[in-house]
Design brief:
Distance between the termini: 17 Å
Helix content: 10-25%
Strand order of the largest sheet: 2-1-5
Structural class: alpha+beta
Strand content: 35-45%
Order of helices and strands: EEHEEE
Radius of gyration: 12 Å
Number of strands: 5
Shape: globular
Mean pLDDT: 84
Number of helices: 1
Length: 70
């Protein structure tokens, strides 16, 4: 959940692209964990809240994944 006034970072993944907005600190932590898992070719579920509700996607090394900080 994003705090008021917190910087917004985006985790982008998949094709078609999905996007999850998080505060910078949370995404920085998640990026380390995600890169470590993908580096070992481990797939894993990732659940996030969006405007529609909760969404779960399967992340794996063959799926395009990117992090953007502002």
């Amino acid at each position: 959940m994003r705090k008021a006034g917190a910087a917004v970072a985006k985790l982008r993944f998949g094709s078609p692209e999905h996007c999850c907005e998080l505060d910078d600190r949370t995404l920085a932590h998640l990026a380390v964990v995600i890169v470590d898992e993908l580096r070992r070719n481990d797939g894993f579920p990732f659940t996030f809240q969006d405007d529609v509700g909760a969404t779960t996607v399967w992340l794996f090394s063959q799926r395009p994944t990117g992090v953007r900080f502002r």
